Amino acid sequence: MTLSAEARAEGMMRLVFALRSKGITDQRLLDAFEKTPREFFLDRAFQDRAFEDIPLPIACGQTISQPSVVGLMTHALSVTPRCKVLEVGAGSGYQSAILARLARRVYAIERHRPLARQARARMEALALSTVSIVSGDGARGWPDQAPFDRILVTAAAEDPPSLLLDQLRVGGIMVLPVGQSDEIQQLLRIVKTEHGLDYQELGPVRFVPLLPDVAKDEGD
Fold first, then answer.
1. Which of 41, 112, 172, 212 has the smallest set of CB atoms within 10 Å of its CB?
2. Could you read off the pLDDT of 43-102 as tens digits, one per residue?
3. Does domain 66-205 fall into CATH 3.40.50.150?
4. Distance from C-alpha of 173 to C-alpha of 11, rounded to nearest angstrom
5. Backbone angles phi, psi at 194, to 5 degrees
């Protein structure tokens, strides 16, 4: 299905209201949401629910996070126009597109090859040329492009991956869910200082686990 301009405008108004009600009021971030068509990152069967503040299924048994969680994590990341950002777990590319409207450069890793291919095609269609997406083991990061000013992880690890922390610049920020995969996890904001790591708990979340290696998907 294709949403009409009127339906999209009405849906976006509802979504922005939902984001504001969750405390996401940064205008630059809200503008990024308004410019990013969430329906474009969903299968046709779910496009009419694109503006609801709920997670929805995507390919490879994965989900697209609910917008308020995307907003919370992105706000906690404190992205500036000068930032080089690493995203682990690109999924359909929705979070990557939001980041692209805030950062100087986005490097995203996705372990499911079909999702990575689809996300790259979406970035091209939206003319978001500052995003690079590859399939790979996200826990290993992207050493060739390190260090990063910001790192966002959209899958839960038992502990913050040391290889990712090594790729975070001093003064940089990492946001990620931490905890057992079958339990409620805690969203952490980690600031890397000259003297070590400062941790801040942002609240309970639930994400898929951070798994090693590239996934063996059908059709690869």
1. 212
2. 989 998 999 999 999 999 899 999 999 999 999 999 999 999 999 999 999 999 999 999
3. yes
4. 32
5. -65, -20
How would DSSP label each residue in 7-42?
A: HHHHHHHHHHHHHHHTT---HHHHHHHHHS-GGGGS
Tokens 């291919």 sit at which residue?
117
Q: How far apart are CA 31 and CA 35, in angstroms?
A: 6
Alpha-helix runs per DSSP H in the chain: 5-21, 27-35, 67-77, 94-100, 113-125, 162-166
Active-site residue list: 65
SS3 state of residue 150: strand
Single pTM value for the model: 0.93
CA gap 126, 131 in Å, rounded = 11
Q: Can you tell me whether residue 109 is helix, strand or coil?
A: strand
